[in-house]
Amino acid sequence: MGDGTDIDAVMSALAEMEARPAPVVSDMLSIQSRGCATDIAIDVIALALDVGGIPGGKSVAGKLFDNLPKMAQKRIIQIIKTIDASSFAGSVWDILQILYNELSWNAIKNSFSDFGLWESIKLGTSLIALFVSGGVAFIINLALRTIAITELIIAISQCDEF
Q1: Which of these, 39, 44, 60, 73, lies nearest to 108 by C-alpha position?
Q2: Predicted TM-score (pTM) of this structure
Q3: CA nearest neighbour of 68 among 92, 99, 46
Q4: Are 68 and 102 in contact (CB under 8 A)?
Q5: What's the domain count of the chain?
Q6: What range does the domain containing 124 cover?
């Protein structure tokens, strides 16, 4: 070959690559491959946090869900299975109650561990407003997010795990 490529080196590299073991598919799966039921549960938690004015999105929602006991995770998924347009607000409130009742202080603290000072202040004031209003502010904010709610209800209806 005129470009100086050593064919023996190329053949040796190919032989070495072929001798490597095949990767295990489960080792390559990401958090987004946990199944539609879990993904939807995290999406619902993220929406609930957003409605409550709590920053963090899916990252925090995923950590919160992962820190729940398995039975609480199953209860959340059972609630999500029954969600429709008329029961959405009440179901999301029930999920927030599960998070409140089942998560330890350390689990909550770990879920929000990446927050800076501003996010921490916003989190504190949002939680105070959420519980002082008795959930009224939550319901109003939830009603303002009809597109996100519609998309979640469609995702729930299309999930084959329900």
Answers
A1: 60
A2: 0.66
A3: 99
A4: yes
A5: 1
A6: 36-158
What tokens were used for 74?
A: 């199953």
Tens digits of per-residue pLDDT, 39-51?
Answer: 999 999 998 888 7
End-to-end CA distance of the chain: 60
- On whether residue 46 sits in a domain, the answer given is yes
Per-residue 3-state assignment (H helix, E strand, C coil) for the chain: CCCCCCHHHHHHHHHHHHHCCCCCHHHHCCHHHCCHHHHHHHHHHHHHHHHCCCCCHHHHHHHHHHHCCHHHHHHHHHHHHCCCCCCHHHHHHHHHHHHHHHCCHHHHHHHCCCCCHHHHHHHHHHHHHHHHCCCHHHHHHHHCCHHHHHHHHHHHHHCCCC
Contact 110, 33 (CB under 8 A): no
Which residues of the chain have a pLDDT value below 70? Answer: 1-5, 14, 17-18, 20-33, 130
Residue 127 lies in a domain: yes
